[in-house]
TrEMBL record:
Gene coding for it: SCCPDH
SUPFAM superfamilies: NAD(P)-binding Rossmann-fold domains
Domain of life: Eukaryota
Gene Ontology CC: lipid droplet; mitochondrion; plasma membrane
Keyword set, alphabetical order: Membrane, Transmembrane, Transmembrane helix
Transmembrane region(s): 279-305
Classification via Pfam families: Sacchrp_dh_NADP
Residues annotated as domain Saccharopine dehydrogenase NADP binding: 14-154
One example of a Gene Ontology biological process annotation: glycolipid biosynthetic process
Protein name (Swiss-Prot/TrEMBL): Saccharopine dehydrogenase-like oxidoreductase
Organism: Salmo trutta (Brown trout)
Family: Belongs to the saccharopine dehydrogenase family.
Gene3D superfamilies: NAD(P)-binding Rossmann-like Domain
InterPro entries associated with the record: NAD(P)-bd_dom_sf (IPR036291), Saccharopine_DH-like_oxidrdct (IPR051276), Sacchrp_dh_NADP-bd (IPR005097)
Length: 405
């Protein structure tokens, strides 16, 4: 495999593209914090986007908001002007970076030019997309080129889908035997200021449902065979049910987690001959009052998303059609500070020495992934409001309970 020099000849370890957007601002804060905590402050980085003025403002706000005591941040961090509509500017940006953190979405419209520029110019690319169609089309179109150049393209590296994907892997590794099936239940809570999700997530959902047929056609091009079912087949839940696991009503999770986890399981099977884990993802929606709102909003959404005029209405008035759950302006910092999330994983499998092809599973395991400020991850589809570091998550907010029958 050909290798690209991504160290000494490149001035920046990280370039944050789209740093002045809703999501990008929080990524800038996290990178600035990481640099200040790192050894000798050796990480070099830059911010990039269309407007130099806005990027300068983000650096100024970051320095003051984080109380870093680093007024020089505005002058120490380089500003790069780049636009997805100008390939030459993207190429110039990528040539300077070891890694590009792409925060410009919706990715189905703006993501591919960045991936293309990264592959052609030898920069690794990380994004926070929760859009399966984008993620899988990039794999289909750029996997071989990226491999030839030694470039990594890492998608869904935000709230979709780090907690789910790494939670599944962590649970599997803790299981004393063969883990065969796993269900996750996402619940979220807000503080006294309430909560909302930035409408970038809303837009991605609109376009995703509108193009669901294209996603099915795309997947046929891979020619994948169904993953083998090991052990008892996982039971699929209904569209709405009461979950004893989280003590509230729940629905199938509509984000990218199931597809991302399945892609990881397929990779582990094909490349490392590891037993695939069946996976089901669900989200808690609360009590009866929330169900009524959800059903009413869902019916409007399913009707309007089929037509171009309906999609325009949904995009123009997210607060109205989502009962305030999605907002063009939110969430505020106070809302994010008061928010939290929990991912509860319930798995079953066969203990060491037990044949998965014989009998029912004889052991269960529960893993809890939780953290404050988790709803930042849904700030902009994604649009993670906060750049969620995998190791920090796994070291700080995981707990596992294992039982054997």
């Amino acid at each position: 495999m050909a290798k690209v020099d991504t160290s000494s000849s490149r001035p920046y370890h990280i370039v944050i593209f789209g740093a002045s957007g809703f999501t990008g601002q929080f990524v800038v804060e996290e990178v600035a914090r990481t640099v200040s905590e790192g050894p000798n402050g050796s990480l070099t980085w830059a911010v990039a986007g269309r407007s130099r003025q806005k990027l300068d403002k983000v650096l100024e706000q970051t320095s003051s908001a984080m109380l870093l005591g680093k007024p020089e941040l505005r002058t120490a961090v380089e500003v790069i002007v780049a636009d997805v509509g100008e390939p030459d500017s993207l190429a110039a940006m990528c040539k300077q970076a070891v890694i590009v953190l792409n925060c410009v979405g919706p990715y189905r419209f703006w993501g591919e030019p960045v991936v293309k520029a990264c592959v052609e110019n030898g920069a690794h690319c990380i994004d926070i997309s929760g859009e399966p169609q984008f993620l899988e089309s990039m794999q289909l179109n750029y996997d071989s080129q990226a491999a030839d150049k030694g470039v990594y393209i890492v998608g869904a590296c935000g709230f979709d889908s780090i907690p789910a994907d790494m939670g599944v892997l962590y649970t599997r590794d803790q299981f004393k035997g063969t883990l065969t099936a796993l269900e996750s239940f996402l619940t979220a809570s807000t503080g006294p200021e309430g909560g909302s999700i930035n409408d970038g997530t809303w837009k991605s959902a609109i376009y995703g449902f509108a193009d669901s047929g294209k996603l099915r056609s795309l997947r046929k091009k891979f020619g994948h065979k169904p993953l083998p079912v090991v052990g008892s087949k996982i039971k699929r839940r209904s569209a709405l049910f009461y979950s004893n696991e989280v003590q509230q009503y729940a629905v199938p999770f509509m984000g990218a987690d199931p597809s991302v986890v399945k892609r990881s399981q397929r990779f582990l099977l094909e490349e490392h001959q590891e037993t695939p884990v069946q996976y089901g993802a669900y989200a808690g929606v609360g009590g009866v009052a929330n169900i009524v709102k959800m059903l009413f909003a869902g019916m409007m959404f399913w009707f309007l998303v089929k037509f171009s005029f309906g999609r325009d209405l949904l995009i123009k008035y997210p607060e109205f059609f989502s009962f305030g759950f999605f907002s063009k302006d939110g969430p505020t910092r106070k809302q994010m500070e008061g928010s939290s999330f929990k991912f509860a994983f319930y798995g079953e499998g066969y203990t060491e020495g037990q044949d998965p092809s014989q009998g029912r599973p004889n052991a269960k395991i529960r893993t809890l992934v939780q953290g404050p400020g988790g709803l930042r991850g849904h700030a902009h589809r994604h649009g993670t409001g906060r750049y969620h570091h995998p190791e920090r998550c796994l070291n700080g907010c995981l707990g596992t309970t294992y039982t054997q029958s």
